[in-house]
Specification:
Structural class: alpha/beta
Radius of gyration: 42 Å
Shape: rod-shaped
Number of helices: 2
Largest sheet: 21 strands, parallel
Number of strands: 43
Distance between the termini: 154 Å
Length: 413
């Protein structure tokens, strides 16, 4: 038995090589073979597979055709390897149309571009040069060197574009990418969408990581996650939240709901319905705050307004309407405090306590009148002292004049 196996393994390849070298056609269970081609197929009807190309190969199956030189169809039904060195492994109705293109398996897949491939799946198309679709349904890799991993109805249209998986995602432009999710679009050059649903990165270098209905509209803009957020200007960003908008250049909203960073270089950290409208303006947290002055700030609270340039408002219903003013309102809801002068520091509260070391002084509704009287009395005393000083200065000036007159009357030595 061992000797028989040795004869088969050594002698048969030698005989097969002899026939390949010295015959212009070798037909095994097939017809219309090209030179040095090979055709296999069902024994009852071997004529249904065709290897037309030079050194073409059809291994098995039904109505498979290897047309191109060096092309191959291994198995399956109704598959075609049409170009030089093209390949179909198995499946039904697959076509390798491009030079050196490949379809591994599946149903109604097409590798159109040169050096393109469809590994498996159904009704996938690798159209661009060196493009690839791995699996899924009705995916298309249209751009040169584009890629679709899996999913259905995804499209990688730009050169070097990428769609990993998901449903109806589109990488429209060169270097753009959508990793997963559904109904996402990467429309700008090198734009990126990570996952989620109905997200869009619409400009060059824009990115949306995840979420639903988020839009990175400005060039190099960014949305991290959340719902219905939009980064609309160049270098703007929304990290998370719901309904937040970064409208200014270099503006940012970190989190919260319905916040807007409208001014250039403005920012809102958190809260709801806050608006940083001025250039370089800032809102830390709270609700319904408005920082409209240049470099104005609201650290927290609700319904505060910082409209003066370089102004600050805190608490509730504090209005810093003058430049460089700081207004803090700690009173009950419904009351308000507003600045009246530039550079003013206004604090409104129920109780005001000053502590130095262990000593405390408290001003409240009961004693504020005494403080006012004390300050008024001290001011009166200061005014009286100032009048005395002015009177004494006049006397000194008179005496100095008399001394000068005596010096003038003295005879010279």
């Amino acid at each position: 038995m061992l000797v028989h196996n040795k004869i088969i393994t050594r002698f048969f390849p030698t005989v097969l090589l002899f026939f390949l070298q010295f015959s212009t056609e070798l037909v095994v269970l097939g017809q219309q073979s090209g030179q040095y081609s090979f055709v296999g197929g069902p024994g009852d009807n071997p004529a249904i597979n065709i290897a037309e190309g030079y050194a073409a190969f059809v291994g098995a199956g039904v109505e498979n055709i290897a047309v191109g030189e060096g092309s191959a169809v291994v198995a399956g039904r109704y598959n075609e390897a049409q170009e030089f060195y093209s390949y179909v492994g198995a499946g039904d109705d697959n076509t390798a149309k491009g030079l050196r293109s490949m379809v591994g398996a599946g149903l109604v897949n097409t590798a159109v571009g040169n050096d393109s491939c469809v590994v498996a799946g159904n009704t996938n198309t690798a159209k661009g040069l060196a493009s690839c679709v791995v699996a899924g349904y009705a995916n298309i890799a249209e751009g040169n060197a584009s890629f679709c991993g899996a999913g259905n109805n995804n499209a990688a249209k730009g050169t070097d574009s990428f769609v990993g998986a998901g449903i109806r995602n589109k990488a429209m432009t060169d270097g753009s990418a959508v990793v997963a999710g559904q109904l996402n679009k990467a429309e700008g050059y090198t734009a990126f969408v990570g996952a989620g649903s109905k997200n869009s990165a619409r400009n060059d270098g824009a990115a949306v990581v995840a979420g639903v209905g988020n839009k990175a509209i400005g060039s190099n803009s960014f949305v991290g996650a959340g719902n219905d957020n939009s980064a609309r200007e160049i270098y703007s960003c929304v990290v998370a939240g719901y309904g937040n908008k970064a409208k200014g250049t270099n503006s940012c909203v970190v989190a919260g709901k319905d916040n807007t960073a409208e001014g250039n270089d403005s920012g809102v950290v958190a809260g709801f319905r806050n608006t940083a409208e001025g250039i370089d303006s800032f809102i830390g947290a709270g609700g319904k705050n408005l920082a409209s002055g240049r470099a104005s700030a609201i650290l927290g609270g609700s319904s505060n307004i910082a409209s003066g340039d370089y102004s600050i408002a805190m608490g509730s219903n504090a209005i810093a309407s003058n430049d460089r003013s700081l207004v803090i309102d700690l009173t009950k809801k419904g009351l308000s405090s507003e600045s009246t002068d530039n550079g003013q520091f206004l604090v409104t509260s129920d109780v005001f306590t000053i502590q130095i070391g262990s000593e405390k002084a408290t001003i409240n509704q009961d004693n504020i009148g005494k403080v006012q009287d004390l300050l008024a009395g001290r001011n009166k005393h200061i005014e009286e002292q100032q009048a005395t000083i002015e009177q004494q200065q006049e006397q000194i000036n008179g005496l100095q004049e008399q001394i000068n007159e005596l010096y003038r009357m003295m005879p010279a030595a």
